[in-house]
Amino acid sequence: MLLVAKRDLRLAKVIKKLSKFDALIIDDLGYVQQSREEMEVLFTLLAERYERGSVMLTSNLPFSKWEQIFKDAMTTAAAIDRLVHHSIILELNVPSYRLEKAKRQDKESSQDKNLSKEKK
Asked: Which domain range does residue 64 map to?
């Protein structure tokens, strides 16, 4: 949406519309590689929200790898600076619940197959 707005010269208008929300949630930042232009509009959004509105952001990448997201060191540093100022950072170093669930399901499936073989 932001990229289309930039292309149509409406980015400021769309960001102003988003400013009406008390908080924005950005989930899984860095999970899918984005283009430089996509990250530029995201940075613009974050810069506009800085000290004006809340942003909740999740990422599997530590800050040290965010240059992969924002494509250059200066933009990365500026984005992190704006995000961490006045923020609460929750770092969860726990195993993936999806992976754990898949392992349990695989184990249960294997046990079911073994029981079926034993009954035969």
From this structure: 2-93
